[in-house]
Specification:
single chain, 281 residues, Dihydrodipicolinate Reductase, domain 2, 4-stranded mixed beta sheet, 8 helices, 25% strand
């Protein structure tokens, strides 16, 4: 049994809260540069250039890439040989978010009551935490600040097996089409298929963590992703919704088994600030 003091969890989450809001992954930056080379619209090229310049400024000045510093999404893989000391795991994660958003001068965007009072919690907690118990004695922390504009364009649909893969593809393209410029394209589209009503939504969000340019491990779904990317970019929504060929940088699909009577499908959209990071303790 390996003991891990939760102070190391607090520090890791604090650091991820700050770094993911300032530094964009090389995969996203490379995808934006490739999009700039291919974009046919002059306005679209100008917007992509401004986006890339904004990322350079954020790194140089150590400032958030976007004013919406998001809700803290945390995926945890906890080794079953780990024993936490010094406090509760979820309390430590929320303390890390609290410290990170304070020290990083990041906007606090969480309201305690979602409907009536909508009073801000003032520290961007609580985080959204998903935990899996896995073999081993390590803890893997994946962190993503998820902005509200893109999240609002997401959707779950309980489809039937009879609708098949063509039904799935039409749903994904229609969801992006109805979103228009609201999620700040070029976007990354996460698609979850299978499981249940809530599991497919988690899958779609997990899919956003995959490195852009990394193929789907299933060759058939890799082809589906490529087709969806072509169809989405043919919509003409373009960068920031002002027209062009670059509506999406990638489509990532994640699947799990499901009930014979169901085919749950979720679309979770991420804006061009596709922020995420991870650490292993």
């Amino acid at each position: 049994m390996r003991e891990i003091d939760v102070t190391s969890i607090i520090k890791a989450v604090k650091d991820l809260s700050i770094s993911t809001n300032i530094y964009l992954g090389d995969d996203v930056k490379n995808a934006l540069r490739k999009a700039l080379e291919k974009e046919e619209s002059s306005l679209g090229r100008e917007i992509l250039q401004v986006i890339l310049e904004n990322h350079e400024i954020s790194e140089r000045e150590k400032m958030p890439i976007c004013q919406d510093t998001g809700v803290a999404i945390v995926f945890l893989e906890v080794g079953q040989e780990v024993h936490f000391t010094g406090g509760a795991l979820e309390d430590a994660i929320n303390e890390g978010v609290r410290q990170g958003y304070a020290e990083g001068y990041l906007r606090k965007s969480i309201v305690a009551d979602p409907v009536l009072k909508r009073k801000n919690t003032t520290d961007n907690t609580p985080a959204i935490i998903y935990t899996r118990i896995v073999p081993g004695d390590k803890v893997r922390i994946q962190f993503a600040p998820k902005g509200g504009g893109a999240e609002n364009m997401s959707e779950v649909r309980m489809m039937t097996a009879a609708q098949g893969i063509e039904g799935v593809k039409d749903f994904v393209v229609d969801r992006v089409s109805r979103s228009g410029g609201n999620p700040c394209p070029p976007i990354v589209v996460g698609v979850g298929i299978g499981g249940s009503f809530e599991r497919c939504a988690m899958l779609a969000k997990e899919a956003l963590f995959r490195t852009i340019g990394e193929p789907n491990p299933d060759p058939e779904f890799n082809e589906v992703e490529n087709e969806l990317l072509r169809r989405i970019n043919n919509l003409g929504i373009g960068p920031q919704g002002l027209g062009g060929r670059t509506t999406a940088l990638a489509v990532h699909i994640k699947t799990v088994p499901c009930h014979i009577a169901s085919m749950p499908v979720a679309v979770n959209i991420q804006c061009h600030v596709s922020r995420h990071g991870e650490t292993i303790i």
